[in-house]
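User: Show me a protein chain along with its predicted structure.
Assistant: Here is one chain, sequence first, then structure tokens.
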Amino acid sequence: MTLDLAQYRQGLREQERIADLMRIVPKGRATVLEIGARDGYISRLLTDSFEIVTALDLRKPQFDIPRVITTAGDVTQLDYSEGQFDVVMCTEVLEHIPSPSLEKACQEIARVAKYEVVVGVPYRQDIRAGRTTCLACGGKNPPWGHVNSFGHGRLKRLFRGMAPVSTTLVGSSHARTNTVSGFLMDLAGNPWGTYDQEEPCTHCGQPLQRPPDRSLIQAPAGGLP
């Protein structure tokens, strides 16, 4: 499905997240690289604090905002020199990057930042909860395509050589599970997974679809709606 970004941006949780990001954005700097710019919502806000904003995504963003340069690029191989930007911001991106490439992405972010890096990721998310099952290939997917979970220790290791300045937590979720419950949900076809996400199957790339009615074997495993 296609996410209505305009509506999503107006949600209370999203507004709280963005307000917190703008609060901790370094002041007194001139240039910033925003990785994962999407619709340009944050890019526009960054023009209040920076002279030049470079908005990067896998595909060149299709928006036109004064003092914002749009470009296509891959966070694991940034086509910029060392320390080219005063600040680099990367939010809602690292949780989607497979582990083999994650460390390289973090190294690239740190490399092109002259002063500070602002990173936003889900904190200690249980990515077993809310899993989906792809009807096309049968692959099990983490919720919202989040293939990584982060805590303070992991972030420090990924951004080794950088010292944490500030950490803030916004919002909360009580979505938790365990090995047995996760196994039973997989057996049931993960009927309660995050099928309203826009992220496709992490295995075959096909759109995720909510499973049909469960079989007599699957129904007890998945529980009642």
